[in-house]
Design brief:
The chain has a single domain (3-222), classed as Uracil-DNA Glycosylase, subunit E (3-Layer(aba) Sandwich), CATH 3.40.470.10. The protein contains eight helices and six strands. The chain has helices spanning 3-10, 17-29, 66-69, 77-88, 126-142, 154-164, 198-201, 208-222, and strands spanning 47-48, 54-58, 109-113, 148-152, 180-181, 189-193. It is globular.
C-alpha cells in the first residue's frame, strides 16, 4: 500500500450519508463566484511530499475550498494563510494555492485532515469523525518519516494524540497555540496551533507572526 493507493481508495468512500449528501449538494449548487468551476465534490486526499518529516493535520475540507478544488487547503482563505506561512518557512515553492494545477509543490511537508469530506457549518459529528479516523490512521502509518506533526486546531490536536495512544502523555496536555508534546515512544514531536480559520484570523487570535512561529520552530527542529 502506498499513499497513492490509499488515496484512490479514499476518494470512493461513501461511509457518512450526511457528508456525502452535503458535499454533492455544494458541488451541484456551487457558489456564484465559482459557477463556471467543476467542483471536486468527493473526499479530499492528503497532499505533499510522501517522505515528509513535517506533517500537518487540519479539521476538514472547506465547502468551496478543497471540496471545490480537490486539494487540501486550496482555494480558500485558510489555505491562503497556511501556504504563505509554509512558503516563508521554506516548505513550499510558492505562497499561493488557488487550484490543484497551480504548480504548488511542498518540500519535506505533507498536509492532511482528520475528516475528508466538507461538513455542514464546518462541524463534523463525533460519529463522522470516528468513521473517518481510519483514513488518517492509515495515512500516518505510511508517513513513516514524520518527525514533527502540527495539529491545526483543538479537534485535530485531540485526534492526533488519540492516534498515538499510550505514547501520548497522561493526563493529556491542554490545547494551546505553540504547545509541544513529546511522545513516550520517541515518535514525532506534536505542535499545537490555532487553525487559520477566519474565526481566528479575523479576530486576531491568530496573527501571521504567531502562525509563522510554529513553522519556524518546526524548521529548526528538523535542522538538528
Amino acid at each position: 500500500m502506498t499513499l497513492a493507493d490509499l488515496n484512490d481508495e479514499l476518494i470512493e468512500c461513501r461511509a457518512c450519508p450526511r457528508l456525502v449528501a452535503w458535499r454533492q449538494e455544494i458541488a451541484e449548487t456551487k457558489r456564484a463566484a465559482y459557477r463556471d468551476h467543476d467542483y471536486w465534490g468527493r473526499p479530499v486526499p492528503g497532499f505533499g511530499d510522501p517522505n515528509a518529516r513535517l506533517v500537518l493535520v487540519g479539521l476538514a475540507p472547506a465547502a468551496h475550498g478543497a471540496n471545490r478544488t480537490g486539494r487540501m487547503f486550496t482555494g480558500d482563505r485558510s489555505g491562503d494563510w497556511l501556504y504563505r506561512a509554509l512558503f516563508r518557512a521554506g516548505f513550499a515553492n510558492q505562497a499561493e494555492s488557488v487550484r490543484s494545477d497551480d504548480g504548488l509543490v511542498l518540500d519535506d511537508c505533507y498536509v492532511t485532515s482528520m475528516v475528508r469530506c466538507a461538513p455542514p457549518a464546518n462541524k463534523p459529528t463525533a460519529i463522522e469523525s470516528s468513521e473517518c479516523e481510519q483514513w488518517l490512521r492509515r495515512e500516518l502509518e505510511l508517513l513513516s518519516a514524520a518527525e514533527v506533526m502540527v495539529a491545526l486546531g483543538q479537534l485535530a490536536y485531540n485526534r492526533v494524540l488519540r492516534y498515538f495512544g499510550s505514547a501520548a502523555p497522561r493526563p493529556r496536555p491542554d490545547f494551546g497555540h505553540g504547545r509541544e508534546v513529546v511522545l513516550a515512544n520517541g515518535g514525532p514531536l506534536v505542535i499545537a496551533s490555532y487553525h487559520p480559520s477566519q474565526q481566528n484570523t479575523f479576530t486576531g487570535r491568530l496573527t501571521e507572526e504567531r502562525f509563522d512561529a510554529v513553522f519556524t520552530r518546526a524548521r529548526r527542529l528538523l535542522a538538528r
